[in-house]
């Protein structure tokens, strides 16, 4: 038993134009409903990414310094990530070399710092040497990259939304 719905697009006595909703048209209606939900989600993600990028600073500060203090030099994954970050960005610690003071890593290295804290990656790098060098913390570099990527992600979401 097949049921169809008639939707009149004009008055019946004019040209008798009607649109029959068939199962195929119902699938199209479902498809466009799903596309609408995806579109709204993309727009919402773009707005959230652009609006809340200022919270990234607080999240980074709350996460990075304790990780450097407690896990750097102990957890191989954390150590590898921070070494790569500090080497690629040519920086030391999150704020500066003092992030390693009182850390587990400093205890292991007997007042030593990671090689990236000194120019030319000198190992061992002492806090006295690092204090006199212009090596900065990674925070400003990471925040700059994060803001650039956030704008890109927000722009892509807005562009895809407009395209849809």
Automatic annotation (TrEMBL):
Source organism: Characodon lateralis
InterPro entries in UniProt: Tetraspanin/Peripherin (IPR018499), Tetraspanin_EC2_sf (IPR008952)
PANTHER family: TETRASPANIN, TETRASPANIN-1
CDD domains: uroplakin_I_like_LEL
Keywords, alphabetical: Glycoprotein, Membrane, Transmembrane, Transmembrane helix
Predominant location category: membrane
Alphabetical list of Gene3D superfamilies matching this protein: Tetraspanin
Protein name in UniProt: Tetraspanin
